[in-house]
Amino acid sequence: MQxxxxxxxxxxxxxxxxxxxxxWKGKMLSGFGVGDVKNILWGVVNALASVALxxxxxxxxxxxxxxxxxxxxxxxxxxxxxSPFWYRYxxxxxxxxxx
Length: 99
What we know:
This protein has helices spanning 3-23, 36-58, 62-65, 67-98, and strands spanning 29-30, 33-34. Helix 1 (3-23) packs parallel to helix 4. By secondary structure, the chain is mainly α. Strands 1-2 form a two-stranded antiparallel ribbon.
């Protein structure tokens, strides 16, 4: 087993719950402690670490050759870009329904 591949996957997948729960104001312990901003930062650091490790091992051309990683990274980036919007949308909708 290639340990670097394990850490590439672990850091990529660890980024998503921390970023989303930080954006949605959920409580979760991160490497920086508990708190919204700390979880968001921990998610971003994990994503950057994953991309850096991936480029270190496979180079930039690895993105074209490893579609599984590239697909997972695209999903993660989609969540990074849309999570604040979805939080505002659902939070407003839930509060409007409560009156």
